[in-house]
Amino acid sequence: MSFDPSLSFSQHGAIRTTLSGPEDYDNDDNAGFKRIEAREIDTIGPHLTIHTFTPLAKQTPQGTAGIIEKIRQTVGDGPVYLSIDIDSIDPAFAPATGTPETGGWSTRELRTILRGLDGLKIVSADIVEVAPAYDTNAELTTMAAADVLFEVLSVMAKTPLGKVVED
Q: What's the CA gap between 140 and 4, in Å, rounded?
């Protein structure tokens, strides 16, 4: 007898990431789990029913989508130098900067924006205004900067420099 997920319903709350892509969720799907990821907070309202996981590429996040579109319209198809000022992140997430400003983006929002830049011809990037001497014992700012760097490098790796030069 095979497992029938319609006979039971489970919810599981956890911090979960994929190692190699959305296919890592296959076991969860086979077990009948319904997932809500933190990044879906911008797209799922109390009136919506969640039936299946919707990959980020198929979502339309409110707020961040407009920022992504504006960046894409501004830079066009040419080579891009991307500079990220760490104080664009709210000091609750990145306090160690020379000019902390409340009301900035969360690290999740910035990650969503960076992932939305897939396909841009980023030839170089930097992260500025990180001041480790002012960081907390938990090193929130340096962790946020490392996460931003990982996201930028991931986008850059998907469009190698050879493709930028060829075009």
A: 43
